[in-house]
């Protein structure tokens, strides 16, 4: 027996799919590590102190004309150059340096506070 596809049937199916999708996306996103945003603007890191947990991600986004870096004070980690309009990410570890600066503009300083 051939099944008849109607416009109403398609619309009902689409509505049902839309109702289910946010739940699936929400549970899938629950397993992803949290990302903390740090804006680089007017030669400053904003916020200048970011509070994070181990395994979470810090994303530095450059809104200045000049390139920048986020570099651990003892050079233990470095994002590399972050050009205008670009971003770089770093996964937080429990033994990482928590104070950082911009290698191109050493007066720019920031800190990471790791939650226990």
UniProtKB/TrEMBL annotation:
Keyword Electron transport on entry: no
Signal peptide: 1-18
Gene3D superfamilies named in the record: Cupredoxins - blue copper proteins (2.60.40.420)
InterPro entries: Cupredoxin, ET_Amicyanin, TAT_signal
UniProt-listed SUPFAM superfamilies: Cupredoxins (SSF49503)
Keywords annotated in UniProt: Signal
Protein name (Swiss-Prot/TrEMBL): Plastocyanin
Species per Swiss-Prot/TrEMBL record: Parasedimentitalea huanghaiensis
């Amino acid at each position: 027996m051939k099944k008849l596809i109607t416009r109403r049937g398609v619309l009902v199916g689409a509505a049902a799919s839309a109702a289910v999708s946010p739940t699936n996306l929400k549970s899938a996103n629950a397993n992803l590590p949290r990302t903390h945003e740090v804006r680089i603007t007017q030669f400053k890191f904003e916020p200048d102190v970011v509070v994070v947990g181990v395994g979470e991600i810090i994303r530095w986004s450059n809104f200045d004309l000049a390139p920048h870096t986020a570099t651990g004070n003892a050079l233990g980690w470095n994002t590399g150059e972050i050009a205008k309009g670009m971003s770089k990410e770093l996964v937080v570890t429990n033994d990482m340096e928590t104070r950082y600066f911009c290698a191109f503009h050493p007066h720019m300083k920031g800190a990471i506070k790791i939650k226990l």
